[in-house]
Amino acid sequence: MNSLVRNTLVSVAFAALCVSTAGAQNAAPAGPPQLAKEIAIARAGSMTMRVTSSAWVSGDALPERFTQNGENISPGIAWTKGPVGTVSYVVLAEDNGVQRPEPIPHWVVYDLPSTLTRLPQGVAVGERLENGGMQGKNIRGEAGYVGPKPPAGQTHPYHFQVFALSSRLNLDPANADRNAVLNAMKGKVLASGDLIGMYTGK
Fold first, then answer.
1. Residue 88 near residue 169 (C-beta atoms within 8 A)
2. What is the side-by-side order of every strand in the sheet holding 77-79?
3. For 30-65, what is each residue's pLDDT tens digit?
4. Under a CB-based contact definition with an 8 Å cutoff, are residues 62 and 53 in contact?
5. pTM for this model (two decimals)
6. Where are the domains of the chain?
7. Confidence band for 83, pLDDT divided at 50, 70 and 90
């Protein structure tokens, strides 16, 4: 009897471990980087927006033309309209596959008007956008998009996140890096969405 109980407990524990491991493997690239995700949940709860691109499907490979190994241009993305009360949008593109405390920011866009639900491919570098939005600092300290370039052989997930906010941020673009934008977003997020592109370095 003791042997039967012991074997049963071992089998149950092993099954639980397998389920846990499988869940962890499946969840790794599934959500936005943790810090941004926490900010979204603070106000949004389960409210989500759908973020898409005509260039790839979320979870698939990011086309090379949007990387530093290609044309290094920003992809065109679109999102569903934010909920009632949306005043502006923030777009963050980040590499969440790095061994460092925070993701690498590849694109920081903020104060996009609530009437906007897309960004075209190849947005020009510079602080001010034609549609009224602003571009903050990427990993290079430049205003605009910089494409992925992970180490050779490494596959990283790149998250293109859109946040619907209850106000504008009105940040000075000279100081608008990822952390400044995230801090200014606190308490203002109404909904969010995430588009993931995987890319392997060469």
1. yes
2. 51-52, 77-79, 118-119
3. 344 545 555 554 444 447 899 999 999 999 999 999
4. no
5. 0.80
6. 1-30, 32-200
7. very high
Q: What pLDDT is stored for residue 35 in this prediction?
A: 52
Q: Please report where in the chains the tokens 């104060």 appear, as a residue.
A: 111
Of residues 128, 163, 160, the one with CA closest to residue 144: 128
User: Are 106 and 138 contacting, i.e. CB atoms less than 8 angstroms apart?
Assistant: yes
CB 127 within 8 A of CB 135: yes
CA distance 22 to 76: 33
Give the integer Cα–Cα distance in Å for 175 and 52: 29
Amino acid sitting at position 199 = Y
Taking a C-beta distance cutoff of 8 angstroms, is the pair 49, 32 a contact? no
At which residue do the structure tokens 């012991």 appear? Answer: 6
Looking at 3.40.50.720, 3.90.1170.30, 3.90.280.10, 1.25.40.10, the CATH number of the domain 32-200 comes to 3.90.280.10
**Token pair listed for 170:** 């009105």
Cβ neighbours of 29 (radius 10 Å): 18
pLDDT given for residue 143 in this prediction: 97
